[in-house]
Amino acid sequence: MKYFRLTFSFLALLLAGLAVAGATELYDRLIALKGVVSVEELDKGFFEERYVVMFDQPLDHKNPSKGHFEQRFVVAHAGFDRPTVIVTEGYGGARALNPRYREELSSRLGANQIFVEHRYFGESTPSPRNWDYLNAENAAADLHAVRQALAAVYPEKWVGTGVSKGGENSLIYRMYYPQDVDVTVAYVGPICFGVEDGRHEPFLERVGTAEERAAIREFQTEVLKRRKELVPLFDEYCKSKGYEFRTNIDEVFDLCVLEYPFSIWQWGTAVSVIPASDSPHQELLDHLTATVSPDYFAVSEEPSFFVQAQRELGYYGYDTAPFEGLLSIKNAKGYLPRILLPDDARRIRFSDALSRKITAFYKTNDPKVICIYGQNDPWSAAMLDTTAFDGKQNMKLIVEPGGSHRARIKTQSDEVQNQIWKTIEGWLFGI
């Protein structure tokens, strides 16, 4: 009798588990996909169902024998008969777990949303962390593998999209796999040609009005003039936060001051919030650290972005000439590999082959792509070559007047928004 009861209890638990697993058609289809390791239900939020999926990927898609890792992606389900938006994220995927997260494309189109966390970020980090396999081609192949796995689940049209590094990622993905998506909407995605690209510094010398630039320069100069008083306060602040650096605190202070105008313009901060030059020391420091957090230059447990920047994505430099005699450093050349890279990535050397390949692809092809940038965003200095849009029937370039890195479809004028949605919906639905 005891054996019967145990067996009955086991069967009851097993059947209960099967009932949960078979609760929805979508769950059953996801868990059955080749490569899927696990499927976990999430709060459905704005969708009918949502799941976080762990998916097996090769470290090197050209040589799977090199090993595997698990990549996280989030499935937000609107309907099997709806289009699907694939978010080509450039970083970690924690924000996609939020039940309120929904891309504007997914909302407008009533679309399914597949958010793919980038390899070497968040829960998609291989162990051990071998930097050899962190490159754009492998990242695009990751997206392709997810797309192929979900092809039968979501057979309608697909839209690729991403923001910033994710925007660049969407362009790279479209280049490597042009048939995977029907439409690409890339937001503020830069294409850089060097670790210190060289176009951002002159951009900062002409962006905005002369009065705005003067206010920014005045703040930088005043902060540097007060370095004797401010650096000890800055050091105390960094220690209180537990930040550790690969250089001395004076250089970190200098770099924060040099980064300041880039951050102001990138995020569209009004110059009216800049403290007056005669403000107390602490007020100046508080504004500086609120605009440029020193942890940007701190040792990070996840330096993956800077490894990619050093290898092929590129980045920007700083012009130190206007502050000669006020800085503790002679110049900022080579700051990224010296300060932001871990020791095991120092051997990586930059190649502009990827950026040249991207540019060549979009110059010689005309996929259904919309690129959106903000006029005042320093990253727009490295926007996709504008000549790639010349004479094209499909490719569209939108530059938001006075816009920042926050430029989206919803931030455009009503007229431009209507034009964009009419184009996208025409491509997808023939409207």
Automatic annotation (TrEMBL):
GO molecular function: aminopeptidase activity; dipeptidyl-peptidase activity
Keyword match Signal: yes
Signal peptide span: 1-21
GO biological process: proteolysis
InterPro entries named among the record's database cross-references: AB_hydrolase_fold, Peptidase_S37
Keywords: Aminopeptidase, Hydrolase, Protease, Signal
EC code: 3.4.11.-
Alphabetized Pfam families for the sequence: Peptidase_S37
Name listed for the protein in its UniProt record: Prolyl tri/tetrapeptidyl aminopeptidase
Gene: ptp
